[in-house]
Design goal:
The chain is mainly alpha-helical and about 120 residues long. It has helices at about 10-35, 55-60, 65-80, 85-100, 110-120, and strands at about 40-45, 50-55. It has five helices and two strands; from the N terminus they run αββαααα.
Length: about 120
């Protein structure tokens, strides 16, 4: 006699992968919001007080599009099913993190990890 195999309800693996992907979306959304609104740079004109500015204040509203890219990449596996697409999104986000590692890329490393775990847990 062979070993009895555990029977999983339909969609259990997919839902576990989706939960990790939702975590990646939420993490990247919160991280993008913090990066946009937190005072990250300081400037001082001779004789005046130091002024701390957010990324949004110093670079303008166009920078919000750049912080939306990781959110969209993390959300894509939730919209379009498929393990290959989930892995592709994790790889694309990972490459983006490596490209931006000297600036804001390091903040998105946990999102890459969450997305990769979600891709691995998909069935």
């Amino acid at each position: 006699m062979g070993r009895a195999q555990a029977v999983r309800p339909a969609g259990v693996g997919a839902s576990a992968g989706r939960r990790w992907s939702v975590g990646a979306v939420l993490y990247s959304l919160v991280t993008g919001g913090i990066l946009l609104l937190a005072p990250l740079s300081a400037g001082q004109i001779a004789g005046q007080a130091v002024e701390y500015r957010s990324l949004l204040a110093s670079d303008g509203p166009g920078v919000a599009l750049l912080t939306a890219v990781p959110v969209l990449v993390c959300a894509l596996p939730l919209v379009v099913a498929g393990r290959a697409l989930a892995w592709a999104c994790a790889i694309v986000l990972g490459v983006g993190v490596l490209a931006g590692l000297a600036s804001v890329g390091a903040f998105y490393v946990p999102a890459v990890v969450l997305l990769a775990i979600g891709a691995a847990r998909r069935t």
